[in-house]
Design goal:
The chain is an alpha/beta fold. It is 44% helix and 15% strand. The strands form five sheets. Strands 11, 12, 13, 14, 15, 16, 17, 18 and 19 form a nine-stranded mixed β-sheet that branches. α6 crosses α7, α19 packs across α20 and α21 packs across α22. The structure holds a DNA duplex.
Length: 820
DNA sequence: CGGACGAGGATTTTT
DNA sequence: TCCTCGTCCG
């Protein structure tokens, strides 16, 4: 028997060795869940299971990557090659790429992230002339997502009277119209949002039995990590794939289910044994991570929940210290107390910063903590906040790539047709859109193939569009032959994005350039990696011959999040992140900040018992991140929306059995049963209701035949996932750019207008010409360097001495001509 | 067109 | 409080 098997405890080993049976592995916090999963796969491979027949699904790319790495260490990296290991989204995006034509999508379909989706919803709402007051794009998008997660297509929705009744009740009678239009637009754009990836796989498997059969035959073994995270659409996929051989192994912990708001269903794990009656059940109950004190304290909390698989988590490690509780008067003081405690712990305890974390309920809490850490020169890295992929320069560049790859992507077209500014305004785009609609083509197809007259475009606009279309066409042409990286660079250059930022000297432009560079580097990294994989698969011989396209890279990147690119400089730093972000991680020292009623538990959760239970699980997750010591803190007052509010200590503090706490003061009344505000309650209740109604519908709105149906929805989710965005806090003197976001720092200093306000300068109304010397009330004197025709007006570029180069429109410019 | 300014929303969590 | 979005204006 291999060495790694021998090192497992009995239950773990059983769970690994019994790979021929459907299995439910209930894995408590710190019980070696990932280890078991990894060993099971390694063992399977050793027993001769072909890697291509193994489908291992995780919730984050990072989890997948780490698992592959660890299997590689147990066996050899080469042996992990053919494994299908990845997130639900990335694996099925790949499958959909191969099958896209059956579903009427282009092979290079675009993947919309949530913000793309939201924009699209907004566009749809506008097109329907609805008010985005009543129809808030965010809410609508969330509801669409909920529907899709329950496999309710627009037509299924239409066939469902109760859902529509609900919409009417909510005063959103036209929701369905928006949903329909949104779905149509996505399809026309050749785009799928995240939820579509799962929905469309279900449709593929439903409508094309041969496709289903193909994948059923291919995947003899299916493993799902964090099974309690799965939503209905994911569950349905698993069931379909498994319905013949039924060799499914799921791993999860109901006590760590914290994602119900996203439609995850704790029932999936609770019902697994009904779905697979001959499944073996393995309960991993020994916690190898934390001290007894921490495990016991965590148990004393989670006991208060009603909905759970009973299991007894225990630690045979050290007794450990008691959990310290810190009280502060304000959020600022809380932060600084944490910082000094942390500093002392690291100094005294010989623990590196990288083994400490400060966890909190909401990202908003990070600011005070950052400040406190900075004041003490404690290095930290913070996850969350504005993501790399959400930054303007990145989204812009990606939109170019998207358009080049998928000419139907109108959303991308609209985004970049005038970014960087090239004089194509709303009017022009509107005309193209009208023409495109009339012709039934996409915007870019119209712009590149139709004559200007057909689009009613005049001289200048026609010329601009022609240039733009030409550029995209050139870039598209490169696609077949050019290296992905070269194409990326070419796109960045020809689009003018690079040039625009290079011209500016402000810090955020520099940082934008760095981001672009990083994005381009990721293309190179990706192609190199793919090429290596291809080479090792094909064996010796044709190294480097395979052509990795930018399409593939784009497809890959669309499913990445920031947590997927941690940098090595982030080594020895304190980790700051939300509790959600910390799931699956562990640290020697953990601080949990903001243990106050209405914050943790969150105000939004207090409307329903289920909500509160989920918060409790969240707190359980927070506490069980700690290996050796945990510190809990709260403040008695806190700035919230710019206002000072008073807070009471969280009920969770009094729920922990006091014998595990080091409590130097009285907690007071402990904040039991605080009432949510009425308006909160209404909102929460509505959300619950919607969820239940939809769940009961079953997939596609039909009566679910066989397996689809669930009694009701009460969700939750877990995930071994890693944090979002990293931002840097340089040790010595961090730039105060919290969140790594760049707001435009006021404009140029308003020019040292040499002249006083001159009284009655008469604006010049005739035609301007290059070389004219003009004067502007604010910018001073300058020379006209360019003049263009712009929809019946003139656009004039003037080089001002003090204020730099400005582009002005004649009808607004109010220039006086000093010399012709 | 693009910059400036003001109003209003935001705080769960992620693929 | 901070950030985003929309409107207004040159």
């Amino acid at each position: 028997m291999s060495e790694y098997i021998e090192k497992l405890n009995d239950v773990q080993r059983e769970a690994v060795v019994n790979y021929r049976f459907p299995s439910l592995i209930v894995a408590g916090a710190g019980s070696g869940k990932t280890r078991v999963l990894t060993c099971r796969i390694a063992y399977m491979l050793e027993q001769g299971v072909p890697p291509q027949s193994v489908l291992a699904l995780t919730f984050t790319n990072k989890a997948a990557r780490e698992m592959r790495e660890r299997i590689g260490q147990l066996l050899s990296p080469a042996m992990t090659r053919g494994l299908w290991m990845g997130t639900f989204h990335s694996i099925f995006a790949r499958i959909l790429r191969d099958e896209s034509d059956r579903l009427g999508y282009p092979r290079s379909y675009t993947i919309y992230d949530s913000s793309d989706a939201k924009n699209m919803v907004k566009t749809a709402i506008r097109e329907l002339n609805l008010s985005d007051e009543t129809y808030k794009p965010g809410d609508i998008a969330a509801r669409i997502s909920l529907a899709k997660n329950n496999l309710i297509t627009p037509s299924a929705y239409e066939a469902n009277a109760s859902l529509q009744a609900e919409d009417r009740e909510r005063r959103r009678p036209q929701f369905l119209d928006i949903y329909k239009l949104y779905a149509r637009k996505c399809r026309e754009n050749g785009a799928m949002d995240f939820d579509d990836l799962l929905l469309n796989v279900n449709i593929l498997f439903r409508d094309f039995p041969d496709a289903l059969e193909k994948y059923q035959n291919q995947f003899g073994y299916i493993l799902v990590d964090e099974y309690q995270d799965t939503n209905f659409a994911q569950y349905a996929i698993i069931r379909r794939l498994a319905q013949n051989h039924a060799n499914v192994c799921v791993v999860g912990d109901d006590a760590q289910s914290i994602y119900s708001f996203r439609g995850a269903k704790i029932e999936n794990i609770l019902r697994f044994q009904n779905d697979f009656p001959d499944a073996k059940v393995f309960k991993l109950e020994q916690n190898y991570r934390s001290t007894q004190n921490i495990v016991n304290a965590a148990n004393s909390i989670i006991e208060k929940n009603t909905k759970q698989i009973r299991k007894k988590s225990f630690s045979s490690g050290d007794q450990g210290e008691k959990i310290k509780v810190i009280k502060a008067y304000t959020d600022k003081e809380e932060a600084s107390l944490i910082a000094s405690d942390l500093y002392a712990a690291v100094r005294g305890g010989g623990v590196p910063y990288s083994e400490t974390a400060v966890l909190y309920r909401t990202n908003a809490q990070s600011r005070a903590l950052e400040e406190a850490l900075r004041n003490r020169n404690i290095p930290y890295k913070i996850y969350g906040g504005v993501s790399f992929y959400q930054r303007k320069e990145i989204k812009d560049l990606l939109a170019y790539v998207r358009l080049v790859v998928n000419p139907k992507d109108d959303e991308a077209f609209r985004r970049i047709v005038n970014t960087p500014s090239r004089g194509i305004g709303d009017v022009t785009v509107g005309r193209i859109a009208a023409a495109a609609q009339a012709a039934g083509t996409s915007l870019w197809e119209a712009a590149s193939t139709m004559t200007p007259e057909n689009m009613e475009l005049k001289g200048a606009a026609a010329k601009k569009i022609k240039e733009f279309a030409g550029m995209i066409a050139d870039l598209s042409a490169m696609r077949a032959t050019a290296e992905a990286y070269d194409l990326g660079l070419e796109i960045a250059t020809r689009s003018g994005i690079l040039g625009t930022y290079k011209m500016q000297q402000v810090p955020e432009a520099v940082s934008a350039l760095e981001n672009i560079e990083e994005l381009l580097n990721s293309i190179r990294a990706y192609t190199d990696e793919q090429r290596q994989i291809a080479a090792s698969e094909e064996g010796e011989g044709e190294t480097g011959t395979s052509h990795v396209t930018i399409d593939e890279w784009l497809q890959n990147i669309a499913l990445l999040t920031d947590m997927d690119n941690e940098k090595s400089e982030d080594r020895d730093r304190v980790t700051l992140m939300t509790v959600h972000g910390a799931k699956g991680l562990e640290f020697e020292h953990v601080y949990v900040a903001g243990l106050e009623e209405n914050l943790f538990p969150s105000m939004m959760s207090l409307g329903t018992p289920e909500g509160l239970e989920e918060e409790r699980r969240l707190f359980y997750v927070a506490l069980t991140r700690a290996k050796r010591s945990a510190v809990l803190s709260f403040a008695e007052s806190r700035f919230k929306w710019g206002e000072m509010t008073f807070c009471r200590p969280s009920r969770f503090l009094s729920e922990i059995d006091p014998k595990y706490l080091d409590l130097q003061f009285d907690l007071g009344e402990g904040g039991q049963n605080e009432d949510a505000t009425p308006q909160r309650q209404v909102r929460t209740r509505f959300a619950e209701r919607g969820r239940n109604a939809e769940t009961q519908r079953g997939e596609y709105g039909r009566r679910p035949g066989g397996y689809g149906q669930r009694p009701d929805a009460y969700g939750g989710e877990t995930r071994t996932y890693y944090p979002p965005k990293t931002q840097e806090c340089p040790t010595p003197r961090p730039v105060p750019a919290p969140g790594g976001r760049f707001r435009s720092m006021g404009s140029r200093p308003a020019a040292e207008t040499g002249g006083a306000e001159r009284a009655a300068a008469v604006p010049f109304d005739g035609d301007y010409a290059e070389g004219m010397l003009v004067e502007h009330a604010k910018f001073g004197v300058g020379t006209v360097t360019a003049v263009e025709e712009w929809s019946g007006d003139q656009k004039i570029t003037v080089e001002f001495g003090g204020a730099g180069r400005k582009t002005l429109l004649r009808k607004f410019a109010k220039l006086t001509v000093l010399k012709k």
